[in-house]
Amino acid sequence: MNLGIVSYGLYLPNGFEDADAMAQKAGLKPAALRVLGIERKLLPSPNDQPIPMAVKAAKQAFEKASSVAPQDIDVVLWTGEEYKDYIAQTASIRLQEEVGCRNAWAFDLIGQGVTSIVGLRMARDLMIGDASVNTVLLAGGTRNVDLIDYANPDTHFLLAASASGGAMILKRDHPENHLIETAFCVDAEMADAVYVPAGGTEIPFSEDNLSSALMYFQVTQPEKLTEYLKKQWASALCGIAKKVLPEKPPDYLALRHLSVNDRQQVLDALNLNSNQSLSLAEWGHHGPNDVIISLDLALKTGAIREDSLVVMVSGSIGFSYGAALVRWGSALKIDD
């Protein structure tokens, strides 16, 4: 059974914030933002909520997919962030209705910044386990930028958070862009390293916390996290990429947004140059949509061509890591 990517879609807001403006709000020098890999990031308008952004991306994917219509979709998977339009909302079902996938089953996935790759794996497994599942829509939106406190030095590593919608249409036995392999891992000891304290059952919403720091991402053990990001973050991303790679390096690495140093560590470890993995410094960090944005940039610039071996790699708070190997174009085999 071969699963292929039929098409993808992206919605990117028009608003943005550059490194100079961000530095002023964060109490940093602009050079410090650029070390974090940030030249600018995309900001949502009041109408750019996660589900509407995902809907726009999904509709674009259908416009590009001449062989697939919304009514052909068997399963809709939400692959956006957990933070979305409403608490306890099943985003996939709202997305399904808005896009017109009326014949589909729908459910939400939660994998933080790795969810798009989890979606690829889930789509493949559904097709293997159920012969009636032939076509799957992955779509999700992110605006975790709302959850970033610029003044908190412990979460400056999250300052690149942006807003977008992303989507992919996957089909059984599609003759192009085959998913070959996926791999995942987690560092369970870091499960509670970063989260938003208020709004859950431990600390429910109240008048006291609605305007407090509890409504933003917090780091529970700053020194431990700093050490982890310094010593294990980049190496874990390299490790998960190598799990899906054959012996030779990929032709292109669709890599999540990283600081300048971490990005270079990953490229060096995988024997790649900067043209084989385009920087997201001008786009910011979009969680699960980073790999789709990188894929789009590479296709538009010619960094990905027919028969290119592409690896999508992401990591997120949790801490979790995922990678997917795709042969872009019509080739079916990994050889040489």
Describe it:
There is one protein chain. The chain has two domains: 3-175, Thiolase/Chalcone synthase (Peroxisomal Thiolase, Chain A, domain 1), CATH 3.40.47; 180-327, Thiolase/Chalcone synthase (Peroxisomal Thiolase, Chain A, domain 1). The model has no long low-confidence stretch (mean pLDDT 95). Helix 3 packs across helix 4 and helix 6 runs parallel beside helix 7 (260-269). Helix 4 (91-99) links the parallel strand 4 and strand 5 (105-108). It is globular. It contains eight helices and 13 strands. It is α/β, with parallel strands linked by helices. Helix content is 29%, strand content 22%. It starts with a strand and ends in a 9-residue tail after the last strand. It has helices at residues 19-26, 30-35, 50-64, 91-99, 115-129, 222-244, 260-269, 290-301, and strands spanning 3-11, 15-18, 40-43, 75-78, 105-108, 135-142, 164-172, 178-186, 194-195, 218-219, 252-255, 309-316, 320-327. The strands form four sheets. The protein has a five-stranded mixed β-sheet, with helices on both faces.
